[in-house]
Give the backbone structure.
Amino acid sequence: MRAGGPTFLVLVAGAVLAASESRSAAQIVWRHDMQEAIREAERLDRPLLVRFSASWCTHCSRMEWRTFRDEQVVAHVNGSFVPLELDADANEETLESLGVKLLPTTLVLTADLKEVARITGYKSAEELTRDFAKIAVAKPSATERAAPGLIAPAVGTTAAAVPRYAFGGYCLASMFENETLVPGSDEHVAIHRGRRLRFASADHQRRFEADPERYWPALDGLCPVSALDDRVRRDGDPRLAIVYRDRLWLFADKEREEKFFTAAAVYYRQVR
C-alpha cells in the first residue's frame, strides 16, 4: 500500500495538470489594440466582438473565468469573430462614443464600427451561446462595397447599407479648413464618436485629432433642414458641405441647402 501511494499521487497530480493544461489551451485570443483589430476584421471579413471590462467589475471577472473559458464559447468566438477586449477605465472616449453605460457589456460590431448586437450584464456560457445564435451580421453587397460615397437613409438603415468610411471617405479637415472635397487615404484613418474617418494626409489627421470637435459636422453630419423642418433623419451629402459660423454643415440635397441659406441664423440657434 505504501509503495503504491506515491505512485498513485503522482498519477493523480499528472491527471490534474493535464486537465488544467487542456482547459488553459482552450482560450479566446483577445486582441487589445482597436485599430489592429479593425484591420484584422476587414482582412478576414469578420465582425468584431468587443468586450468591455474593468478590474473592479465583479461580473466582468465572473464572465472572464467562467463564460469565456467555456469550450463551446471559446470555439465560437475564435472561429466567428475578431475578439477585442478593452479596459473601460483606459478607454472612456470609446465607451462614450459607443454608448456603453454599464459593465459588463459585449458588442458585436461590423469592421466600420456599426453596432449589430449589444449584450449587457453577466451572461453564463449557456445564455451567451443563445445570444450568439440570434446574431446575424449583415454584410454589404459588392455594389455597396464599390461605392464608398453612397449616402444611406438614416431611418431604417442596416449594416449592409452603411459606407465603409463616414462622410463618404472624404477628409473632414479639408472640408472645414479649405471648403474643398478631398478623398481621404486608407493610410490616414482615425475613429471618432464610433465612426471611421479618412484624411488626406498625416498632417490633416493630426490637426483633427488635436481638436476633433472643431471639425466635427453639426448634428453629426445629419441634414439640419431635414431634421428640424421635416422631422426626418437624413445623412448630409459631403458634396453639399459648407462652413457657417465655424461649424461644418452637410445637406441632403440642393433644395435643403438653399432653404438653410434663407434662414441660416435660425437653424444655427436651434442646433447650437
